[in-house]
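To whoever picks this up:

The parser on our side crashed when reading a file containing two proteins. I've narrowed it down to the boundary between the first structure block and the second sequence. Both blocks are reproduced below exactly, byte for byte. First block:
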Amino acid sequence: MAVERKFVEDRVRKLRVKEWMAQEVRNAGFGGVDITRTPLGTQITLFVERPGLVIGKGGRRIRMLTERLKEFGIENPQVSVDEIQNPEFNAKLMASLLARALERGWYFRKAGYRFLYRIMEAGAKGCEIEISGKLTGERARTEKFVAGTMVHTGEPIYTAVRVGYDVAIKKLGVLGVKVRIIPPDAELPDEFEVREPIQVEKIEETKETKETKETEESEAKTEETEIKEKATKKSDKAGDKKEVKEVKTAEKTEKTDEGVQKSKDDKAEEVAEG
């Protein structure tokens, strides 16, 4: 088998699995599926609004899904379910919920505005909802519901805009639902940030304060060293003075001892002469 044909077959298999999963877990709020190959098998991650409906009681339904996935030619499938943290910013989930609402009998204009307000109130930068098909009569048409800013050209439609599509099956025919959402964390080309010059002044102030602190610390260190040197000099001088005093006192005592001895000798000589 050629390498190109193998790649095409793998992509077709993944597309079939995604379409089948969307139909199986449509009641749980399907928000997408991620299929990755691992050395141990194929990891399939489902993103839904209500994971409990997919897992089932005691995990019966998820085991049934793993058994059914083997029929698509997937070796050792491992299914995991994750809950969507921000459902209002998931375009696939919003399109699926809107399609289910239309199937339950909601009027298309009421349903479109309801979901539009829900998405914008959650904090999205822009939203566009398209509902096409036999809305009110035998002739098909398209209705758009737009709020905020929306991008239709350029690179941002691939990086900033999230697109979701689903189908609502009704008695009169099929309605197509397409949802485009720009989440609040998306960066658009026309958005920019103006930095105030106060920040630069603050940086300069911080540098000056650091320099002043360093100079003050160095001056304090020099003062401490000078004080220590003076103290050592004073102590040395005091020691020298003490030594001089001791020497002088010793000399005085020697002189007094000599004078006493001379006086004693003189008295002894006088006594001997007398």
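<<boundary where parser fails>>
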Amino acid sequence: MTTLGTRATTSATRRPVPRARLRGARRVVLALILPLAAIVAWQATIWIAAPREWMLPSPAGVAGAAWDARDRLWFHAQWTIVIACIGLVLATVLGGVLAYAIARSRTARLAVYPWVIVSQVIPLVALAPLLILWLPPFAAIVMLAVLMSIFPVVVAGVDGLGGTDPELVRAARGLGASEVWTWRHVRVPAALPRLFTGIRMAAVFVVSGAVVGELVASDRGLGALTRLSAGQFETPVTFAGVALLALIGIALFGAVALAERIALPWMRRTTRRGS
């Protein structure tokens, strides 16, 4: 009986493992449907229209060019990755500080928040030449990356801090907690899920900001590579650079999502219970 019970327990504990693997495989398949369909449509266009390679290369041609230019692509990708990471860190820190100040002080909300919005209204392509005149090239590119990505961090942080459950705040104050303690231990932890949502959005936007800066002020980086390769009619290399930029954005988004899972484990458990 003991042996049968042990076997039953062991089999019961092993049952969820294949299900988890099936769910993971299903997610991968669903995520690949759209890009695979796009590649099929792309190849069909090549077969039907037969454009010249410098206008629209085939997927196989882009893959071959990416492999042949892998050292060149990696050389430029390192620069873009460094700028994007620095810009994301600065946008997260500065955006979090601004969100805290805006949510905490009505004066800061009236004096600062409108200018945060204005920073997104002005096209960064028009602002880039001015930043190049005022700052060294590297600092100007980082500044553009920060300006492109800080807005979602600030907005998400303000909404999170302002959307804390009033019952929690009243309970903390009723137990004798000070205003500073309440903000530190109640409002800020409650705002973290929304703040991470803003950081995930910033992880995507920061790559665009880095590319804008590289297009204007740099001879290194994937933005500069796409400009140079397109000017020399190396269209397959341009496509490969764009694809690599997409992978960098996805990787940064995934890194922020992983950091959120580590920092907020209770959110993962809540999601599992809800599902």
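After patching the parser it read the second block fine. The longest helix spans residues 179-217. The chain is about 90% helix and 0% strand.
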